[in-house]
Prior knowledge:
By secondary structure, the chain is of the alpha+beta class. The protein folds into three domains: 4-47 and 152-222 and 365-402, FAD/NAD(P)-binding domain; 93-144, no CATH class; 226-357, D-Amino Acid Oxidase, Chain A, domain 2 (2-Layer Sandwich), CATH 3.30.9. The chain is 33% helix and 26% strand. A hairpin with a 5-residue loop joins strand 15 and strand 16 (270-273). The longest helix has 22 residues, at 302-323. The chain starts with a strand and ends with a helix.
Amino acid sequence: MTTERADVVVVGGGILGLATADALQSRLPGASVVVLEKEDAVASHQTGRNSGVIHAGLYYAPGSLKATLAVRGGDRMVEFCAEHAVAHDRCGKLVVATAPDEVPRLAALTERARANGVAVTEVSPEAAREHEPHVACVAAIHVVATGRADFAGVARALAGRVVAASGEVRTGVRAGRATPTADGWTVDTGDGPHPPVRARFLVGCAGLHADRVARAAGERPDARILPFRGEYLDVVGPSAELVRGLVYPVPDPRFPFLGVHLTRGLDDHVHAGPNAVLALAREGYRWSDVSPRDLADTASWPGTARLVGRYWRPGLDEVVRSLSRRRFVAAARRLAPDLDPADLRRAPAGIRAQAVDRRGALLDDFALVDGERSLHVLNAPSPAATASLEIGDLIADRVAASLPGA
């Protein structure tokens, strides 16, 4: 079979892989860039199955990649959406403390937000109800920079830009083993009709399969992707009218998850969620989705048992909430007590690709692994969609600096 040639091959057709390909074409004019996506359409997993929120950057450790790139990335995302007629807005959001013991955590979050350059306004319960008349809280902050975007639409726009600049976005093509050559890599694409791709540089942006793509190229990352399913409830009927925009709880700083929140999407549908349960498959959007290979990967990783041992109690709470609609509804009603349980029903879930190291620690920041003529994004959970244009630029700069003759 004939081998095709390219300057850079990007594995993964989510928003991050496409933003990277777009940035590469701007950074390396004339370079040939090929994106390989195993699904029949781009943005099929994390990009197309998230809450659609443009995060302002208030949650992340000052100086971290997440903080820096989310703050800059939010502004760029709004500009990109406006330029390419992708649905978006900046509706702002409330973060609310529903009990007195959450007030110190809300104050700490406010300090962190300001350290990151994010404008927040402390508001009284009465002022909070001017934004969200049915919210329950003892204290709150309003974050004006938070917005919403059709991230799948952004991915499609990026794919269009890549193709318009003479790049290629190949869907339905699964990247296999990557074999080093004298001048780069040969990426196998299986036994189908698609020929292998020979490239000078390899970039992995494979999300739920990021560690596997890295290992297929000979890397030995000291972390493994564990899939956490985020389940949602649709809020319908009269209860949907109780939520104007975005209402979030004060997050537990020990975990990278934000807790059950209420979001009115750009499509005007209201959701409650997500929770976070360890899925039985990397693409396990339902409890019935089970992959023996994925389960074996999860169970054999030393960090899994240590993670469970460390967080078994909150983990058990998440599982119970997943299995008990009553518990899930109760979490949503902490924010808006007037929600009618009869108006909440199960909705499609998403999966968060979370890297966990051998010690059982959840990688908190974006993580990139540099190899020989290769770079792999090992950890890019939320706010990666918000920061995707900035992350793409960061990757493109690293590729350009290490690509011979660039």
